[in-house]
Write a structure and sequence with these properties.
α2 (about 55-65) packs parallel to α5, α5 (about 110-120) crosses α8 and α9 (about 185-210) packs antiparallel against α11. By secondary structure, the protein is mainly α. It has helices at about 5-30, 55-65, 65-70, 90-105, 110-120, 130-140, 145-160, 170-175, 185-210, 220-225, 230-245, 255-275, 275-280, 285-300, 305-315, 320-330, 330-345. The chain contains 17 helices and no strands.
Length: about 350
């Protein structure tokens, strides 16, 4: 087939126009309060712009294709090693957050790509065994540990063998500030912050009912009268409330009644689900497993996978931090396998 250099240049020009047209479309269609891709504060390391995708779409794709994202499918949300395929994992939680956040962002004419990138990346730093794993790593690591800071560290340092994903500042800010006490700089980040709570309150209720820890009738009437009597009703009311109260405003807010009921329901969940003996039955064992792994790799850093050992030996990262990186990145099943490999005697065969 003959080579036509001019055809290649023509295709390149068309692709370049695609990105520029998409960036212009954001200015034409999105709310004046939305974050525009062409106005991003950029990345820590300069890169040649993609010929098709604006920066936030590119970030979203990088997160989706990362190893850390794939490992979320085998990390605990609330229930450790549940019997049954229908309980949420950290991955399905993340996808539900992204779906809720995109619904709100679309209705408010916010930047969907930025919203989805933050949502998909917000829990990348979560440990195996859910918050039980996070708690024990924070206890034993001298520098402390929190999943939201670790999520940022994953995309800045840990991924790509120490190079990170080089995401935009807006995405990293949203990931860092998705927690309850966080204050994201963008409205898209504020949408994810609300969506995270809406998602886990409702799907954790659904899982707790499935596990026969609570019933729908156990939820106090003072909350259900405002928020509804089913998962579907609660999702519908909470999402609509944010959209109605935030439309054409430079802020993302809920009405006082709905937000107050949501916060009180969240507290009720802590007392009746998250601290319930049935949900916490295996947490002590999981935490001791993490303690043993941490101590082992602190004493035998040379046994870490090469990419982690290089971070200590050549990049001069603190050993405590890198050991936390490695353990936090494990899935539940991989952590158990590593523990058995290191500490459980194997049967001897001739």
């Amino acid at each position: 087939m003959p080579d036509f250099p001019a055809l290649g240049l023509w295709k390149e020009a068309i692709c370049l126009n695609i990105r520029e047209m998409m960036e212009q479309r954001e200015h034409d269609i999105l709310s004046p309060y939305a974050s525009k891709s062409s106005e991003s504060e950029g990345r820590d390391r300069w890169e040649e712009p993609c010929d098709i995708r604006p920066v936030y779409q590119r970030d979203r794709d990088r997160i989706l294709h990362s190893k850390s994202f794939r490992r979320l499918k085998h990390k605990t949300q609330v229930f450790l090693a549940p019997e049954g395929d229908h309980y949420r994992t950290r991955l399905t939680h993340t996808l539900e957050v992204a779906q809720i956040a995109r619904t709100i962002a679309l209705a408010l004419k916010m930047n969907e790509s930025l919203t989805e990138a933050i949502a998909l990346g917000h829990d990348l730093g979560h440990t195996p065994f859910g918050h039980a794993g996070e708690y024990i790593l924070n206890e034993i690591c001298e520098e402390g540990f929190s999943h939201y800071r670790q999520s940022v560290r994953v995309v800045e340092v840990v991924e790509k063998k120490g190079k990170g994903l080089n995401l935009t500042k807006e995405v990293r800010d949203g990931i860092l500030n998705h927690r309850t006490s966080g204050s994201p700089k963008t409205l898209e980040g504020k949408i994810v912050r609300f969506s995270d709570k809406i998602a886990y309150i409702n799907h954790d209720i659904d899982d707790a009912i499935r596990a026969r820890i609570i019933t729908e009738k156990d939820i106090p009437k003072e909350y259900s009268d405002i928020l509804g009597n089913t998962v579907k009703e609660r999702l519908n009311i909470m999402i609509h409330d944010i959209i109605i109260n935030s439309l054409d405003k430079p802020e993302i807010i809920m009405s006082p009644d709905v937000e107050g009921a949501m916060k009180r329901l969240r507290q009720w969940m802590f007392e009746n689900v998250y601290k319930n003996p049935a949900a916490k039955a295996e947490e002590g064992k999981a935490q001791q497993l993490i303690v043993q792994l941490y101590r082992y790799y602190m004493d035998h850093a040379d046994r870490l996978p090469e990419e982690y050992f290089i971070m200590i030996d050549q990049c001069h990262e603190k050993k405590e931090r890198v050991v936390c990186d490695y353990i936090a990145g494990m899935s539940d099943s991989y952590a158990i396998d590593q523990f058995e490999e290191l500490f459980v005697p194997k049967s001897w065969k001739v």
